[in-house]
Amino acid sequence: MRLTSLAELLGGAVRGEDREITGASTLEESAPGDITFLANPKYRGKVNETRAAAIIVAEELDLPISQIITENPYLYFARVLNLLYPEKPHKAGISESAYVHPDAIVHEGACIYPHVYVGADARVFENCVVYPGCFIGDGASIGEHTVLHPNVVVYDGCTVGRHCIIHAGVVIGSDGFGFVWDGKRHAKIPQKGTVIVGDHVEIGSNCTIDRAALTSTRIGSDVKMDNLVQIGHNVVVGDHTVIVAQTGISGSARIGKGVVLAGQVGVAGHITVGDGCTAAARSGIVADIPPGKVISGFPAMDHTRWLRVQTVYKDLPELLKRVRELERKVKALAED
Amino acid sequence: MRLTSLAELLGGAVRGEDREITGASTLEESAPGDITFLANPKYRGKVNETRAAAIIVAEELDLPISQIITENPYLYFARVLNLLYPEKPHKAGISESAYVHPDAIVHEGACIYPHVYVGADARVFENCVVYPGCFIGDGASIGEHTVLHPNVVVYDGCTVGRHCIIHAGVVIGSDGFGFVWDGKRHAKIPQKGTVIVGDHVEIGSNCTIDRAALTSTRIGSDVKMDNLVQIGHNVVVGDHTVIVAQTGISGSARIGKGVVLAGQVGVAGHITVGDGCTAAARSGIVADIPPGKVISGFPAMDHTRWLRVQTVYKDLPELLKRVRELERKVKALAED
Amino acid sequence: MRLTSLAELLGGAVRGEDREITGASTLEESAPGDITFLANPKYRGKVNETRAAAIIVAEELDLPISQIITENPYLYFARVLNLLYPEKPHKAGISESAYVHPDAIVHEGACIYPHVYVGADARVFENCVVYPGCFIGDGASIGEHTVLHPNVVVYDGCTVGRHCIIHAGVVIGSDGFGFVWDGKRHAKIPQKGTVIVGDHVEIGSNCTIDRAALTSTRIGSDVKMDNLVQIGHNVVVGDHTVIVAQTGISGSARIGKGVVLAGQVGVAGHITVGDGCTAAARSGIVADIPPGKVISGFPAMDHTRWLRVQTVYKDLPELLKRVRELERKVKALAED
Lengths: 336, 336, 336
Prior knowledge:
3 copies of one chain form a homotrimer.
Chain A: H1 3-10, E1 13-15, E2 23-24, E3 34-37, E4 54-57, E5 66-69, H2 73-84, E6 93-94, E7 99-100, E8 105-106, E9 111-112, E10 117-118, E11 123-124, E12 129-130, E13 135-136, E14 141-142, E15 147-148, E16 153-154, E17 159-160, E18 165-166, E19 171-174, E20 179-181, E21 186-188, E22 194-197, E23 202-203, E24 208-210, E25 216-219, E26 224-225, E27 230-231, E28 236-237, E29 242-243, E30 248-249, E31 254-255, E32 260-261, E33 266-267, E34 272-273, E35 278-279, E36 284-285, E37 294-296, E38 301-302, H3 303-314, H4 316-335
Parallel strand pairs in A: 2-3, 3-4, 4-5, 6-9, 7-10, 8-11, 9-12, 10-13, 11-14, 12-15, 13-16, 14-17, 15-18, 16-19, 17-22, 18-23, 19-24, 22-25, 23-26, 24-27, 25-28, 26-29, 27-30, 28-31, 29-32, 30-33, 31-34, 32-35, 33-36, 35-37
Antiparallel strand pairs in A: 1-5, 20-21, 37-38
């Protein structure tokens, strides 16, 4: 693909020689023929060393390398990747080694791989790809253009929207964690609700999302979830929210729109994290957070305060020494 | 179902009009025809706004709403849910698309879904439900009335008791983590033990429970485990213990009876947590804990102490300022 | 098996009566006929109480019990376990209930269980065991003598080396977590790289290892990973490194050789942990660590410093009291 062809398809202005592009890579790992990008100015120095044939940049560089000028080089690069390395096609139809209940409705344009199970009254819409080992329970629904990677489990009655990517081993709709002591043992609170996942959602491998007790656990549209994330029952996650790996959200918590929860965060039950909040890695959120806050630590506090607290924390032995020295001096002064 | 019919089946005293009950919900989400409950007095105010037809309460309310009076409204509500929304039936028998080893013993009253694998000498008892994609290894045993949700893996020789609910993706019996350096690389300590899970145990999705090196990893009866919990080899978990999501218990730890480990807790290897202990979320338990303690923090300490420590911790910058001010004053006094 | 036969096969010097060995166990759990071992001198006292027929020791004990003297008793014991309890054999061949793409190359000495899926151009080498429910994607490769336990997923194009043990539910090659905001929603950065797992690697159940964006996520040889570990895209893990349960490594981090990351550790993206480092449980590593360091805490610091910090931390309420007392005294002195 030539640079000018890329620009015709994706926009941007070409500067320098029109080169043939055969691959894409980072600045450092480029081979001749590759296109690369510069999104973060701190990597500007690496441009001189790249072997790439062309570079995507926000502002023209005074260098002999061929360039595409565009507002958002990283986004442009993502689009180039889609052109250079298209998704592999999947043959529509139901494998003979899959089990599809006679009362399920599977669109003829969906691809059902071997060893899939589709239950009664389940629906699989157009252009879905359901990889081997997936389970789609009775009455569950998978929206059009959604991909379930191998061994995904969607329990009875749960709904996944359109254009979603659900990675291997994800469990959607297992029972929420609810018990009541009956005097002898824990009686189960039946979990009769469901899970509703919006559109354009990506869920990382081996995540777990519990069904609600009575209503719905809801994952908004354009939510992006990394691997091994846990979502408790009745949780609501707002649109565009990003949840990084190994984070856990306890039952009935409400996470706003456009929130970022970094890795290994924990959110307590029944609390609200406002729209646009960012929680740094390992934050432990135990109280409501108003919109727009940046927080850290456990219990979570304002991020800038946490940074100051940590500065003192790591020097606690020295602080103790200073207090001891003060005690010695004050004693001496008192005895004078 | 009428209120009086509920009371005939489940006990409790009916007050007010005998209403037809068609659903169940929380105070806030009730529709007409629903039954709801009041378990926590702090939600008393919401009773006035509920649209429910009837409410389960511990003490009669001076309100026109129909009521069932019972000692434990939440437990009663759980039982009502079971009546109103019974479990779906499963057809006994072995799917033609399942593989059952000729030397396995599967009770004729068990339900084996497609794509299940049951190994040699494995046993599946009466009324078990084994969902698609489950693996039951050679010599493994699944007790009566136990449900294995899709893609559960029970390694060779492991035992799951009666009336258990094992959620999707759970792994029972993978090798414990044991190695010894042989001078060139890590030699594996063969893990020749097993896992024994008691009765009435519920295990959340994608949990992992390792087999013992030589003896048994043991999960007591009525243990309730949330999602993504990790149990190391040789661990013993006592009856009635509750383990919340993403908690990890290291090898050879002993967790007593009636313990509560909240979310994202970690327990070090070879230590003992006494009966009836409660560990708050994110506790890191690195030493033995006597029975009945409530602990928090990392390293875990008495919960009330931890609360006091946290109060000072979050104000560390101010404490440092006070020490600086003292130093200044003491210096001035000394120079007087 | 007689003691002298063990010594012929595995080396070591026999002392005392040549006994018949029928099992193996720890000092405390031994039955007559068992062989046991003493690796850690602190358990020396338990030798007197063992019921074992023989013991493996580093130095001869002045006791009537039969002994094998060897340099590394624990390693010797591991080898004895392999002799006494050999791995069960697997019948080579492809189950009729497996799906193997006509363009896949499966060695005739490999064992493919029912409900396995092997994609186009995938390779499964000699003596591999692929348990039920595994997915081996197009162009993926599984080296000789490697075992995939049930429901392992190896995405397209990923490579697992030789003599590996991959436990149930592991996901290798799911998409790395990369998005760029396009003004309306998160656009996906296509993840076009792969995962390369070395030889003699063991990966615990339900671990997740993401494919690289453009190049390879690489797991070195002899790496040992416990359960529920998360490895982000582009991560490199050096040979012989040990990663304990529930640890998460963010994208593009580089973990050296012979590193130990204990349980529930977190490693931030793009940082380097030097060869031979040890991170204590729950460390949160947010900056580069030079080789050979022992670290703890969050943000991670030198382990000995962390221990001193923790000592002051847990006594913060008392430190505050001392500061208050100083303030009172200094005030009194100033007023004198």
